[in-house]
């Protein structure tokens, strides 16, 4: 076992605190999300959850007196006849989100989605045709594929059923096109699979509403949903030649900017010709917390869901306005996004 290579063998005379330090060091080096310490009649078993799977790391011949208090980790204890069963909740290991960020996704959102990618459930990427959602789905799939999980792709109900018979950990569905696929996706997510799915919808709330329109059972949807990401593609200004200008009064009003606010306009240069340098994506995301699950289960309308979801995070319009202030896109692009 890996811990034995660190000389943490069952018969080693290691103090409880030193053994705890060694277990945590091993868990972190292997990007574990949880440590399970399970006392039983014959001793204590230590298992690490790595890539969603529990893997045995150490077996001790007797109950171990482990002290994790100095390490600042979240410790959950459950008394048993053989001693406390302990689960350590470790911070989500750092993941490589360069690809997501290259698409325009803010680092904070990429890291938040990283936590969702380590668990089973349903993650939706929404957007109209041409919004780049398929590219984002495949980037998320690559992030989820760490080499220890069975990752599959399905295009319709028949392929999804076949994929679910292949003992998958992760299944990507490029587009949920009908009620049948929606029901299968939610059912699979409820069984512990991670389902990454595209939905043709203008925003994140509309994607949830679309699943409702397909008559997905509210409790199942509320229980399985992890996150809904929505996106649009916009033209990125060329940083070599963009020029600062005062926003027009009508545009300032539409975007909520102060009168005379400075924005950027395209010019054109040898590097870009047009004043633009490719495209970037604008994102919004809804993360399913307990309150949102209640709203979905109880049939809360879209306005209430949106009010809760975007209380502390930007919707598409707000995210676009931020890109205008940063000089990434024009104010006209942001108006287009804000109008839906």
Specify the CATH architecture of the largest domain.
Answer: 3-Layer(aba) Sandwich
Quickly give the structural class.
alpha/beta
Q: Helix count, per DSSP?
A: 13
> Largest sheet at a glance?
6 strands, mixed
Name the shape in a single word. Answer: globular
Q: If strands are numbered along the chain, what order do they take across the biggest sheet?
A: 7-8-9-6-10-13
Would you tell me the overall average pLDDT?
A: 87
> Which residue ranges are poorly predicted, with pLDDT under 50 across at least 5 consecutive positions?
4-15
Strand content: 25-35%
- Helix share of residues? 25-40%
At CATH level 3, the topology of the largest domain is Rossmann fold
Q: Calculate Rg over CA atoms.
A: 24 Å
Distance between the termini: 55 Å
By CATH's scheme, which homologous superfamily of the largest domain applies? P-loop containing nucleotide triphosphate hydrolases
At the first level of CATH, what is the class of the largest domain?
A: Alpha Beta
Number of strands: 13
For the structure shown, list the relevant keywords:
alpha/beta, 13 strands, Beta-Lactamase, Rossmann fold, 13 helices, six-stranded mixed beta sheet
What does this structure look like?
The structure is a single chain. The protein is an alpha/beta fold. The chain folds into 2 domains: 3-89, Beta-Lactamase (2-Layer Sandwich), CATH 3.30.450.90; 98-338, Rossmann fold, CATH 3.40.50. The protein has helices spanning 16-29, 98-102, 107-117, 133-144, 157-164, 179-190, 204-213, 218-224, 249-255, 290-297, 302-309, 316-325, 331-338; strands spanning 34-40, 43-50, 53-60, 74-80, 83-89, 121-126, 151-154, 170-173, 194-199, 225-237, 243-246, 262-265, 276-287. The protein is globular. The N and C termini lie far apart (55 Å). 36% of the residues are buried. Mean pLDDT is 87; it is low at 4-15.
């Amino acid at each position: 076992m890996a811990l034995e290579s660190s000389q943490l063998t069952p018969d080693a005379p290691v103090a409880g605190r030193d053994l705890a330090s060694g277990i945590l060091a091993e868990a972190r080096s292997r990007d574990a999300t949880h440590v399970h310490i399970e006392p039983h009649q014959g001793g204590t078993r230590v298992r690490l959850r790595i890539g969603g799977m529990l893997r045995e790391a150490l077996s001790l011949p007797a109950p171990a007196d482990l002290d994790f208090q100095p390490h600042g980790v979240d410790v959950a204890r459950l008394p048993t006849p053989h001693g406390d069963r302990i689960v350590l909740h470790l911070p989500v290991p750092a993941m490589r989100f360069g690809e997501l960020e290259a698409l325009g996704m803010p680092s904070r959102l990429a890291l938040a989605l990283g936590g969702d990618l380590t668990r089973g459930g349903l993650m939706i990427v929404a957007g109209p045709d041409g919004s780049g959602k398929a590219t984002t789905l495949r980037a998320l799939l690559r992030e989820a594929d760490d080499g220890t999980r069975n990752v599959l792709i399905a295009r319709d109900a028949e392929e999804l059923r076949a994929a679910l018979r292949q003992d998958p950990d992760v299944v990507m569905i490029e587009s949920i096109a009908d009620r049948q696929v929606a029901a299968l996706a939610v059912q699979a997510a409820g069984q512990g699979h991670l389902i990454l799915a595209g939905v043709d919808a203008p925003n994140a709330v509309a994607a949830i509403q679309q699943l409702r329109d397909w008559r997905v059972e509210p409790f199942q949807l509320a229980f399985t949903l992890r996150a809904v990401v929505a996106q649009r593609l916009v033209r990125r200004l060329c940083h070599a030649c963009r020029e600062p200008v005062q926003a027009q009064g009508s545009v300032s009003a539409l975007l909520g900017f102060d009168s005379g606010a400075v924005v950027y306009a395209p010019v054109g240069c040898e590097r870009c010709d047009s004043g633009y340098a490719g495209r970037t994506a604008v994102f919004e995301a809804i993360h399913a917390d307990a309150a949102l699950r209640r709203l979905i289960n109880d049939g809360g309308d879209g306005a209430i869901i949106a009010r809760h979801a975007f209380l502390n995070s930007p919707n598409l319009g707000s995210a676009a306005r931020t890109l205008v202030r940063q000089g990434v896109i024009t104010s006209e692009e942001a108006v287009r996004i804000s109008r839906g």
